[in-house]
Design a protein that fits this description.
mainly alpha; elongated; single chain; 6 helices; 118 residues; Helicase, Ruva Protein, domain 3
C-alpha cells in the first residue's frame, strides 16, 4: 500500500491516517479454515490441520501471501478438489456420507496453493 500511495504525489495526503492490522498466526488461520470447513459441512480427517499448518507456514513470507485471504483461497481449492473427487465417483459406488464430507488427503499435501488428484 505504501508503494501505491507513493506512486502518485499528493495521494497519501487524501488519507488522514493508516490502520495497521496484525497478521493472523498460523494457528489462527487453521482455526479460520476449520470454521469454514464446518460451515460447509466438511469433516477434516486426522492430520489435516497439521498438514494445513505446514502449507500455511511455507506460504508465509511469500510476497503474494495475503494471510486471511490465502486461507479463503485454500478452502476454495480444497472444496474444488472434493468436488472433482465426488464427480469421479460413479453412482454405482454409492458413496457413504463420510466419503462426501471428507476432502481427499491429496487436497492439502501439495505445495503452495494445493495440488489435488481424484
Amino acid at each position: 500500500m505504501t508503494t501505491f500511495l507513493e506512486s502518485n504525489p499528493g495521494l497519501d495526503s487524501r488519507f488522514d491516517g493508516t490502520i495497521h492490522f496484525r497478521n493472523y498466526t498460523t494457528d489462527e488461520m487453521v482455526k479460520i479454515f476449520r470454521r469454514r470447513a464446518l460451515k460447509g459441512d466438511y469433516a477434516l480427517g486426522a492430520g489435516f490441520a497439521e498438514r494445513l499448518a505446514t502449507v500455511i507456514a511455507a506460504l508465509d513470507g511469500d510476497r503474494t501471501f495475503a494471510n486471511g485471504r490465502t486461507v479463503r483461497r485454500l478452502s476454495h481449492r480444497v472444496r474444488a478438489c472434493q468436488e472433482r473427487r465426488l464427480i469421479a465417483i460413479t453412482v454405482a459406488e454409492h458413496p457413504r456420507t463420510n466419503d462426501t464430507r471428507s476432502p481427499p488427503r491429496s487436497a492439502i499435501l501439495g505445495s503452495a496453493m494445493l495440488q489435488c488428484s481424484t
